[in-house]
Amino acid sequence: MTLHVNGVAHHKEFDHRTTVLDALREHLGLTGAKKGCDHAQCGACTVLVDGRRANSCLLLAVAHDGAEITTVEGLADGDALHPLQEAFLEHDGFQCGYCTPGQLCSAVGMIAEAGEGAPSHVTPLAAAPPGAPVRLSPDEIRERMSGNLCRCGAYVNIVAAIGDVAR
């Protein structure tokens, strides 16, 4: 099968039980996505699959043959950091850093979802016409990022970093 990871095609054979997370970490040497809970409850393993954020610990690699996967290693453009990576540094949006790769990938996906007009639980019903971009207030960011946990409690700085980039 072929996994396209960060713009590079990887032709590999995987056991049918191998998750995307294990394929990335153990077979491709990309250790950015972390194995936190292994139950899709913490978000440390979040990557982008075909542009959508996903918990890679629950995805079977064989079900994603041909998919385009972006990990935190693929967010930067060479030596130029992604704007969210720069904002996380500027706002001190991490402490131990364990959750940071998942937070960054989730934030990239979340900003795209809001840009496409996807509402969240806290989006006002009369906010805008269907399909119009959703303004990412701090409440919107907190709700949309609620699947990514930070044991250190850097949430205030994470929300500020994402808010800066979303504006």
Structure summarized in a few sentences:
With 167 residues, this protein is α+β, with helices and mostly antiparallel strands. It folds into two domains: 2-74, Beta-grasp domain (Ubiquitin-like (UB roll)); 83-166, Orthogonal Bundle (DNA polymerase, domain 1).
Structure description:
It is built from 5 helices and 5 strands. The relative contact order is 0.16. It folds into 2 domains: 2-74, Beta-grasp domain (Ubiquitin-like (UB roll), Roll), CATH 3.10.20.30; 83-166, DNA polymerase, domain 1 (Orthogonal Bundle), CATH 1.10.150.120. A 5-stranded mixed beta sheet has the order 2-1-5-3-4, covered by helices on one side. Helix 2 (83-90) packs across helix 5 (155-166). It has helices at residues 20-27, 83-90, 100-115, 138-144, 155-166; strands at residues 2-5, 8-11, 46-49, 52-55, 68-70. A hairpin with a 2-residue loop joins strand 1 and strand 2. The longest helix has 16 residues, at 100-115. Helices cover 31% and strands 11% of the residues. The chain is globular. It has 167 residues and is α+β, with helices and mostly antiparallel strands. The termini are far apart. InterPro entries: 2Fe-2S-bd (IPR002888), 2Fe-2S-bd_dom_sf (IPR036884), 2Fe-2S_ferredoxin-like_sf (IPR036010), 2Fe-2S_ferredoxin-type (IPR001041), 2Fe2S_fd_BS (IPR006058), Aldehyde_Oxdr_Iron-Sulfur (IPR052914), Beta-grasp_dom_sf (IPR012675). Residues 1-75 form the 2Fe-2S ferredoxin-type domain.
